[in-house]
Amino acid sequence: MKYCGNCGKPLTENQKFCPYCGKEVNVNNDTNKTIYNPNKLLFESKRSLIGHYGFFVLFLSFILFIIPFVIIVIANSTYSVRIYSNKIVKEGGLISKENKVQLFSNVISVSVNQGLKGSIFNYGDVYVNLVGKENLSLTDVKNPNEVAGVFQKMINTNNLEQHLVD
Question: What residue stretches are annotated with the Zinc-ribbon domain (predicted)?
Fold first, then answer.
């Protein structure tokens, strides 16, 4: 079977012009034998995920969203707790420093709350019940059982009985 050298459509042996494009068919049989291969790839265009400006867009989105998010998380989760015999000092913040001092006396009880994630990474919440004052709560404390142990040593059973009787 012969094919048109211009449009690639099939031709019969005795046609002198292509019925599809009107091009004259070459009468020389040698040239018409290899005129057209319908499966030959002539051009392929690929589009990548990143595209023309994709790298720039990815880089810009990383700068605008990911880095500020990480800074905010670190800034809000960076703090220290110092426990004294009559007060607790919380200092926190990476960008803006915040100091909070809370006075306390007469610890009644201490409790620790650790979830599964806290048990794995040794973080948790420590709640301290105080006599006659607002209770103390420390959230996301590293080594919460150790912190609770410090407060448990402050429980004075003699003062506790006296406050409970009054």
Answer: 3-25
φ, ψ at 118 (rounded to 5°):
-65, -35
Answer for the pair 156, 106: CB distance below 8 angstroms, yes or no.
Answer: yes
**What sections of 62-156 are H helices per DSSP?**
67-77, 116-121, 144-152
pLDDT digits (tens, 9 = 90+) for 93-141: 666 677 778 777 778 889 999 989 888 888 899 998 887 777 888 888 8
Only one residue has tokens 């220290």, namely 80
Residue of 86, 112, 87, 118 lying closest to 102 (CA atoms): 87
- pLDDT of 32 over the 50 cut: no
Percentage of residues in the chain with pLDDT exceeding 70? 75
Model-level pTM?
Answer: 0.48
- The region, left, alpha or beta by phi > 0 then psi within -120 to 50, assigned to residue 132 is left
10 - beta bridge partners? 3
CA distances to 53, 57, 70 from 64, in Å: 16, 10, 11
Backbone angles phi, psi at 67, to 5 degrees: -65, -45
Query: How large is the average pLDDT for residues 67-78?
Result: 72
- Longest Cα–Cα distance of the chain, Å, equals 122
Bigger pLDDT: 1 vs 67: 67
